[in-house]
Amino acid sequence: MSNECLLPTAETRRYPDRVLTDRHGFHQWLIGLEGVVELEAGGRGAHVEAGRLVTIASGNEHHYLAPGHNRTLVLDLPVAWCEAAGLGDVTSRRLPSTVRADISALVDARPDVLARRLHALLDVGRTTHAEPRLRLLHLLPEVEADLAAPWRVRDWAVRCHMAEAAFARRFRTLTGASPHAWLIERRLQRACTLMQDTRRPLTEIAQTCGFHDSAHFSRAFRAHYALSPREWRQRRQSADSR
């Protein structure tokens, strides 16, 4: 756990597309600007979406994952400063339009300006953020760990206790891709990694990555990279030799 910060800070960050864990000695507020970051703290999940404030208490271990392009305003707030400023327990919430329109002013704010803005944020009420049913922090690593499995969207939806159509819509909102397109892209990425070992047959790689056969693998690969797997591997070998 990192040391307590001395002054409030504001920084715009982009979070990576992998599950990470953190814990720090200051309160942290995250305000979504673009895309989505999924957080889990204390067994509860939240989605940091555009215009939504999600809070993390000092010392609280949390996990996060950003499945697509994202931009988040992160406020690191010293515990002592919050107490002196009278900032109590702040709950996650959807910010009103008047506050959302002014978020950009926080990005490079000085601490004194930041303090006034934070007080304004506290005046938006205490509407809590319901725990999301679609928990990508659990689902996506499980899928990526076994890409050879015959995954179906209906199975993912059942795991999240959602109707298939509702799941597909929410998945696209969070990741920027349909479930099927996301799965194909991850399988192709894994295939590219495996193809760097020139001793591995393409048929074996196709099956390891969840494609029905070599023909299915080749069609999907060509549609995505405009090259056959064999051509891609040959170009990679040629580039490496140079």
Commentary on this structure:
This protein is of the alpha+beta class and 242 residues long. Helices cover 41% and strands 19% of the residues. It has ten helices and nine strands. The protein has helices at residues 79-85, 97-100, 111-121, 136-145, 153-159, 164-175, 179-195, 202-208, 214-225, 229-241; strands at 9-13, 20-22, 27-34, 36-41, 44-49, 52-56, 62-65, 71-77, 93-94. Strands 1-8-3-6-9 form a five-stranded antiparallel β-sheet. Helix 5 crosses helix 6. The longest helix has 17 residues, at 179-195. The chain starts with 8 loop residues before the first strand and ends with a helix.
TL;DR?
With 242 residues, the chain is of the alpha+beta class. The chain contains 10 helices and 9 strands.
